């Protein structure tokens, strides 16, 4: 069923609440500052520290993005947010798989990019997860999981894109993303996701407040 213009407008308004816009401004600022801090600090001297903090930034961006999508309301949301951060960080282990070694040196000097860094994998993985959950009739409360995977992994790919571009296998890769584009894409991604979640009914729209009418 197609959403009516009215529904679309309401979905747009709800995915761009004042709090969520302020939080994504904060996320944008974090993106701008985090990588700069890495370059100037003592962290830069050690390969391990550099990789760990790089991975931690992926995790923080993943958590922050999901927090914008759901808006923290109850205690249980914190667990969800931590899971989103884990998902955003964990895909870097494919470096070690491809290197077939736990050596950081080997993982960082791969002849090609490891498979979880191919952006085509994201929609495929999200849809597969959705399908699996449908088959096994997983509880409704887990319906957000494919969306979380999408947001976390996409935010990781966008950030890696500053150095490597986006790799859309089997079609090839884009040139490295300009830094400003990375900041804009990262801070708007949660809004786009929650907009689509509202439209597809993954998230329930709040009933419109009595007394407030939106004329469209
Ligand atoms: Zn990566």
TrEMBL record:
Q: What is its main location?
A: membrane
Which UniProt keywords are present, listed alphabetically? Answer: Membrane, Transmembrane, Transmembrane helix
What name does this protein carry?
Transmembrane protein 267
Task: Report one GO cellular component.
Answer: membrane
**Source organism, top-level taxon:** Eukaryota
Q: Mind telling me which residue stretches traverse the membrane in this protein?
A: 114-132, 179-199
Q: Which organism is it from?
A: Castor canadensis
Q: How does it sit in the membrane?
A: Multi-pass membrane protein
Subcellular location as annotated: Membrane
């Amino acid at each position: 069923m197609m959403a009516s213009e009215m529904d679309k407008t309401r979905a747009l308004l709800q995915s761009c609440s004042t709090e969520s816009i302020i939080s994504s401004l904060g996320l944008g600022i974090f993106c701008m500052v985090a990588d700069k801090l890495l370059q100037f600090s003592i962290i830069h001297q050690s390969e391990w520290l550099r990789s760990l903090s790089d991975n931690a930034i992926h995790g923080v961006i993943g958590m922050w993005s999901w927090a914008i999508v759901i808006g923290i309301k109850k205690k249980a949301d914190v667990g969800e947010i931590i899971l989103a951060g884990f998902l955003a960080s964990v895909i870097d282990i494919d470096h070690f798989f491809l290197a077939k070694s736990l050596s950081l040196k080997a993982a960082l000097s791969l002849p090609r990019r490891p498979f979880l860094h191919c952006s085509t994998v994201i929609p495929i993985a999200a849809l597969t997860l959705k399908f699996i959950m449908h088959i096994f009739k997983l509880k409704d409360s887990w319906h957000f999981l494919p969306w979380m995977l999408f947001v976390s992994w996409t935010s990781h790919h966008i950030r890696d894109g500053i150095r490597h571009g986006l790799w859309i296998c089997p079609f090839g890769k884009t040139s490295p993303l300009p830094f400003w584009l990375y900041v804009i894409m990262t801070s708007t991604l949660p809004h786009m996701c929650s907009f689509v979640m509202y439209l597809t009914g993954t998230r329930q729209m709040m009933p419109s407040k009595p007394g407030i009418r939106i004329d469209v």
